[in-house]
């Protein structure tokens, strides 16, 4: 199993990395953000919401990638928007989404314990950086690894699956054996990082997913907590 080298301190340093959607916060964020932001920045585009639903169905049918889906969603529902305006809207969205959906307390408690223990804590998520940053700030997490947006496209692709693992490796540095990593997620799409971590934690309310995760040797916690 690969691990990563930390600065030369002569001791193992713990790294704790958390997914965002349905892991730290109880509900997914992207579609709610599109609707929230369209209502404030481009209200007429709310009429395109049924088209967005059809695009999501097209993705489920395998007609295009998640990266392409997210680009189409941004262009359809918001058009071209200034990045600073998206960040400000993202801060407003984070407050509204947390109030509506809530944090998953069993996971945020774990994150706070990692922070108190001096672990190097990060959030690694497929959510767009311009609004995920607000969630990270509210948890006191300085490091965010998320999907980038340049106004019309996604440089480097969606921060998802193998791409998320690569981004995490870039952040940590060269593989070595003096770092112990915890990774927490609700999604089997994060299997590349869950399999890599010495302390993989899977969050779910599904019995079938629980059994599958346990069979892989991952720790499982109840997503209702």
TrEMBL record:
Keywords, alphabetical: Membrane, Transmembrane, Transmembrane helix
Record's protein name: HAD-IB family phosphatase
Lineage, top ranks: Bacteria, Pseudomonadati, Pseudomonadota, Alphaproteobacteria, Sphingomonadales
UniProt xrefs under InterPro entries: HAD-like_sf, HAD_sf
Entries under Pfam families matching the protein: HAD (PF12710)
Residue spans crossing the bilayer: 46-65
